[in-house]
């Protein structure tokens, strides 16, 4: 199973955007990549070709990856209906509700479906790029989690945190996320990416370096603020996300006199559109195509005065039509809509918004409130059916064929005179349709807006040279992928995911190891005659051992961890201290020992395990910057020495410690003296090439491992479960 999980320090940190960009960038390299999100909590959804419903963001990610959108990409979709209830969509189909009290503990069947979907994808694709949800820092939800660290632990996925620097507090949010999760989960946090950076990166870099030193997480890139990129989001946190990319909203968006008196100026005026911001807004992405249309100014509002003044008012979809209709009335928006009807100013209702324009709504499904009067602008009655309609459909308006999709329980029946409008109806300047995505059809959108401008008395006309909406979205994906390719270390992310094989820059040529020569004889010099006081047979059998595994062969660390496994099963306390190696690599031994520590804490079985890393790898941790290995070694040895003096552990494993001593980063004589004079009953195992002579002389057991043959000699890479 090959995958990597993109988590965030918060909702809307850029996870969806990052997965989209990564999928397209890796697709360019010829990698069979597929996106995945175990659970999405969103009212922005899309319908696949087979009628299954998934999150809108995952549909777009599928397009970026070049795969067919399907429910397996987003097996669980939770659609909030109230503050305490969400409607469940399981593998694209309705599957009941989830109450607030069940969220942390009542999702076992959903977790099983999510895990099964991930296995299905991992069995059929080369790489799965997983999007997390919210933040793994939500420890109150960890017990039942199958979206963030729960999924990562299930499939041993490396995790990359994404943080939005535009929100402020980026270092604190990343460090806080790392700090609050459990030790076992922390072991999977491999790196981080900064999103939406603006300014001089050299000012930011020292903070990122410090963050890496403190956490062991690698800096995998800094993605800049991307002007004009506002791809589909997962939720309604920012339904007007395009405004942040296209410029600030004017302080007074509604002019005192919205209809200019000068006919010449009239032709230069933009077409002003307002979208009602329902509390339970659904598929707000319907209006994004309008925001991409030249000369159209789109705002999202709950202000009745603004709703009355604009050229076109849109009532979008709602996950709870009757409740949002009541909210609309409480805020005086019903009076603004009535005024628009009297003045002949255009109103468009889409799905739930269309239902609100009806004479009567009979809801025995969503809210179970029965018959409720609608706004009465269209001669339609709405009844909610138990069966939910989800389908891709095509209708026509005039000469225009319009493609879209439907997601609704409500069925509309005409009870009076009206003109057809797509699948719905039109009376004067009021339009209603159930069809989502209709405005993404360029020809229809331009024709409809031209009619709106005529009805509103505005001289707006479509730009014949404007880029179409589908082409604009594709260009956004390409721009995002360009930035990811340039600013994010995709090569390292592929390594973390365990993806082997040539993928362009994803795999650089590695030097071919030479055959091992015969081990040279070791001259112990003045330490060859170390004398020991005579001990009894029992004392000899029980005395603490100093063990050294050295040589150029593979298996030195593996042997040490085998001793550690034996020691744990005997109830010993174990301390593993890795020099050189970074904790960013999710090695099997670290994950296993941390799992053993969890078992000990829960059941009392075995012994306690402490695992610390004191390195940042043998290569540059970041482009152009070398790790200060001497300083890292000194800090690491200080901590080991403190534990030896405090007799904290029964067994200490100092991994790659010989390498540190051979490099001269520590005083070998001082180290050996400390080891020989350690108090109590503490066993020590030391690994690494080029063990110093004095250490060899002082040790009780020394093994010089010789390499006879290894797949590395043929250029093969290390495998998860074998080498790591």
Write the layout of secondary structure elements.
Blueprint: E1 3-8, H1 15-28, E2 33-36, E3 39-41, E4 45-47, E5 53-55, H2 56-65, E6 76-80, E7 85-90, E8 93-99, H3 108-124, E9 127-131, H4 149-155, E10 159-164, H5 170-180, H6 183-186, E11 189-197, H7 201-215, E12 218-224, H8 241-246, H9 263-266, E13 271-276, E14 281-282, H10 288-291, E15 296-301, H11 304-309, E16 312-315, E17 317-318, H12 321-330, H13 333-343, E18 347-350, H14 352-356, E19 360-363, E20 370-373, E21 380-397, E22 400-414, E23 419-421, E24 424-427, E25 430-433, H15 442-456, H16 469-487, H17 490-497, H18 537-542, E26 546-550, H19 556-569, E27 574-579, H20 588-603, E28 609-614, H21 629-646, E29 651-655, H22 657-662, H23 668-676, E30 683-687, H24 693-698, E31 701-704
Parallel strand pairs: 1-9, 1-10, 2-9, 3-6, 10-11, 11-12, 13-15, 13-16, 16-18, 18-25, 19-21, 26-30, 26-31, 27-28, 27-29, 29-30
Antiparallel strand pairs: 4-5, 6-7, 7-8, 14-17, 19-20, 21-22, 23-24, 24-25
Helix pairs in contact: 1-2, 1-16, 5-7
Overview of this protein structure:
The chain is α/β, with parallel strands linked by helices. Strands 15-13-16-18-25-24-23 form a 7-stranded mixed β-sheet. Strands 2-9-1-10-11-12 form a 6-stranded parallel β-sheet, sandwiched between helices. The protein has a 6-stranded parallel β-sheet with strand order 28-27-29-30-26-31, sandwiched between helices. α1 runs parallel beside α2 (56-65) and α1 crosses α16. The protein is elongated, with a radius of gyration of 32 Å. The two termini are 15 Å apart.
């Amino acid at each position: 199973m090959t995958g990597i999980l993109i988590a965030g320090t918060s909702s809307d940190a850029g996870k969806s955007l990052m997965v989209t960009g990564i999928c397209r960038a890796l697709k360019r390299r010829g990698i069979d990549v597929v996106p995945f999100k175990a659970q999405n909590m969103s009212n922005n959804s899309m319908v696949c070709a087979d009628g299954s419903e998934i999150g809108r963001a995952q549909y777009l990610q599928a397009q970026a990856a070049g795969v067919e959108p399907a429910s397996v990409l987003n097996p669980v979709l939770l659609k909030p209906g109230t503050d305490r209830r969400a409607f469940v969509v399981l593998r694209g189909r309705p599957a009941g509700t989830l109450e607030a009290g069940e969220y942390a503990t009542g999702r076992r069947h959903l977790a099983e479906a999510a895990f099964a979907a991930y296995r299905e994808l991992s069995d059929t694709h080369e790489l799965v790029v997983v999007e997390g949800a919210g933040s793994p820092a939500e420890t109150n939800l960890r017990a039942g989690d199958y979206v963030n660290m729960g999924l990562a632990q299930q499939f041993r996925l490396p995790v990359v945190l994404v943080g939005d620097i535009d929100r402020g507090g980026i270092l604190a949010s990343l460090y806080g996320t790392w700090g609050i999760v459990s030790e076992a989960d922390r072991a999977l946090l491999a790196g981080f990416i900064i999103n939406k950076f603006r300014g001089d990166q050299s000012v930011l870099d020292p903070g990122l370096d410090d963050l890496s030193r403190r956490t062991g997480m690698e800096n995998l890139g800094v993605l800049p603020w991307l002007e004009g990129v506002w791809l589909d989001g997962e939720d309604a946190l920012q339904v007007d996300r395009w405004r942040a990319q296209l410029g600030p909203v004017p302080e007074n968006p509604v002019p005192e006199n919205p209809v200019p008196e000068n006919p010449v100026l009239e032709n230069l005026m933009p077409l002003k559109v307002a979208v009602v911001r329902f509390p339970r807004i659904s598929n707000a992405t319907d209006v994004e195509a309008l925001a991409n249309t030249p000369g159209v100014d789109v705002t999202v509002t709950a202000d009745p005065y603004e709703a009355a003044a604009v050229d076109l008012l849109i009532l979008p979809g709602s996950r709870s039509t009757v409740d949002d209709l009541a909210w609309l009335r409480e805020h005086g928006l019903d009076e603004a809509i009535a005024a628009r009807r009297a003045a002949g100013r255009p109103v468009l209702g889409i799905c739930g918004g269309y239902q609100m324009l009806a004479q009567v709504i009979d809801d025995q499904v969503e809210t179970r409130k029965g018959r409720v009067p609608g706004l009465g602008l269209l001669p339609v009655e709405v009844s909610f059916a138990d069966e939910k309609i989800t389908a891709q459909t095509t209708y026509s308006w005039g000469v225009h064929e319009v493609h879209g999709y439907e997601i609704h329980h409500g069925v509309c029946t005409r009870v009076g005179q009206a003109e057809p409008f797509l699948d719905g109806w039109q009376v004067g300047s009021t339009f209603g349709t159930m069809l989502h995505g209709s405005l993404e059809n360029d020809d229809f959108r331009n024709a409809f807006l031209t009619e709106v401008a005529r009805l509103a008395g505005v001289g707006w006309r479509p730009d014949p040279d404007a880029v179409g909406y589908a082409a604009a979205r594709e260009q956004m994906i390409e721009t995002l992928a360009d930035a990811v390719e340039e600013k994010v270390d995709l090569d390292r992310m592929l390594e973390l995911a365990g993806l082997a094989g040539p993928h362009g820059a994803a795999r650089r040529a590695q030097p071919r190891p030479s055959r091992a020569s015969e081990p040279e004889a070791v001259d112990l010099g003045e330490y060859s005659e170390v004398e020991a006081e005579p001990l009894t047979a029992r004392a000899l059998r029980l005395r603490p051992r100093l063990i050294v595994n050295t040589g150029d062969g593979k298996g030195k660390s593996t042997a040490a961890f085998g001793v550690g496994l034996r020691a744990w099963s005997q109830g010993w306390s174990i301390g593993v201290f890795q020099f050189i190696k970074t904790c960013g690599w999710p090695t099997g031994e670290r994950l296993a020992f941390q799992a053993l520590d969890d078992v000990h804490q829960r059941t009392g079985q075995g012994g306690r395990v402490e695992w610390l890393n004191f390195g940042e790898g043998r290569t540059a941790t970041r482009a152009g910057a070398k790790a200060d290995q001497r300083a890292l070694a000194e800090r690491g040895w200080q901590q080991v020495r403190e534990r030896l003096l405090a007799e904290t552990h029964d067994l200490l494993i100092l991994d790659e410690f010989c390498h540190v001593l051979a490099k001269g980063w520590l005083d070998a004589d001082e180290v050996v003296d400390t080891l020989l004079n350690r108090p109590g009953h503490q066993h020590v195992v030391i690994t690494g090439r080029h063990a110093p002579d004095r250490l060899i002389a002082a040790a009780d057991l020394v093994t010089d491992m010789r390499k006879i043959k290894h797949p590395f000699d043929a250029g093969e890479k290390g495998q998860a479960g074998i080498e790591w």
